Amino acid sequence: MTVTAPGADAAPSLRALPAEPLVPRSDFPVLAREVRGKRLVYLDNAATTQKPFAVLAAVADYYRQHNANVHRALHTLASEATEMYEAARRRVARFIGADDPRGVVFVRNTTEAINLVAASWARARLRAGDVVLLTVAEHHSNIVPWQLAARATGARLRYLPLGDDGRLDLAKLDEALAGVRIVALAHASNVLGTVHPVGEIARAAHEAGALVLVDAAQSAPHMPVDVRELGCDFLAFSGHKMLAPMGIGVLWARPALLEEMEPYMGGGEMIDVVELESSTWREIPWKFEAGTPNVAGAVGLAAAIDYLEAVGRERIHAHEAALGRYARELLAEIPGVVTYGPEDGDRAGIVSFTVAGLHPHDVSQVLDDEGVAVRAGHHCCQPLMRRLGVEATARASFYLYNDREDALALARAVRRAKEFFRVP
Ligand code: PMP
Q1: Fewest C-beta in 10 Å: which of 18, 89, 350, 379?
Q2: Any idea what the CATH number is for the domain that residue 69 is in?
Q3: Are 370 and 416 in contact (CB under 8 A)?
Q4: Is the pTM of this model over 0.70?
C-alpha cells in the first residue's frame, strides 16, 4: 500500500501547477482569519468544508424573509418556505442526474441516509444467510448500520479486499457476489482517495441480483456524480462536505424502491391518516421525512450546488487531483514520510501520510501551530487502518479554494514537525 518510499527521488513535475485556487479565497469569510498568527491553510475538507458568502446569504435570507414550517399552513410564509424546500429538492435531483425529485429524501447526513436504508430496506428483506457486500475501506457509517441489520436478520457481511495499490481487487468480484442482496461501497475513499469503479461493480451486482448503495460523501462534492451513469439504487451524501450547512444531507433512491419501503421514523409530516391503532403514510419522499425538516439547510444546499456548478465539477476534480499529486510529490522529498493510496489513475485530492518516529496526532499539532489544519486519527476507518498496518494517519484533503501555496505550506509544516521533535 505504501506509495512513496522514504527519500524517494520524486521529480516534482507539478512545480508549474497554477498558483491560484479555482475560486477566490475571499468568497469564504473564514479563510480570511489567521490561526496562531499564520494564514489559515484549511486542509481538512474530507471532514467538513468552509462556507462561501453565497451559502451564508441564502441561509440568512431564508430566516430573515421567509421562515415558516413547511407543508403545514397555507399562509404566505409557509407556502414560500415550502416552495424553497421543494425547489432545493429539484435542484439536488438535477445535480445527481435524477429525473424524478421524488427519489430525493432530505436527511441529516450520509450516516443517516445509510442507516435509513439499512433499517428500512434491509431489515425487512434480509434473511438468515443473505450477504451484504462491503469493502474493507468503508467509513464506519457504511459498516456499522449493516452490522446492526445483519444482527437483526441473521444476514452476513462480506468484505471485498483491497490490493496493495490501494484499489479494490475485483478479480473475484463474481465469486464475492454469491448470495449478496446489497453491495454498499464508497465512491471515493476518505483515507486513500481511491475512486472506485462503481459503475462496473453496479453492473456485476445487478447481474447477480443485488442492489447497490453508493456512499458519495467524498465524491458528490468533488466530481461529476450521475446516478444514471453509476447505475446505483441508493446514493448518500452530506451537505456540509460540499459548502452547505451542517445538518442537511441526501438519500437518493430509485422511487420504486422508496415506494416499497416502510418509513424509517414516524411522526408529523410523514402521515396521511392517523387512527388510534394504525396510520397511513404520505407519498414519497415525504413518507421518509418525519418531523420539521431542516429547511434552511436545504436552501443552503441548493445555493452550494449553484456555486459548485458555476465552477464545474470536472474542473474541481482536476484541480484537487493535481494539488493532491503535487502534495504527494513534496511529501515524498521528506525522509521518513510515507503516503497511502494509489499512485496513479482516478484519484481524489486526499493525501494520507505518516512520518516515521512521529505519532500523527503530534504531526497535526505542529501543523496547527503553523496554521495548517489537517486531520489525524483512524478517520472512522478502523478496518482499513488494520489493512494498512497503521493505527492512524495524518490526512490533508484539498478543495476548490486550496492552491499551490497550501500544498507548499503543508510540506514546510511537516518538515517543521520533524525538526521540532528532532527526528532525523
Ligand atoms: N462516508 C465517507 C466516505 C465519509 O468520508 C464520511 C465523513 N467522513 C461519511 C461517510 C460520514 O459522513 P457524515 O458524518 O456527514 O454522516
Answers
A1: 18
A2: 3.40.640.10
A3: yes
A4: yes
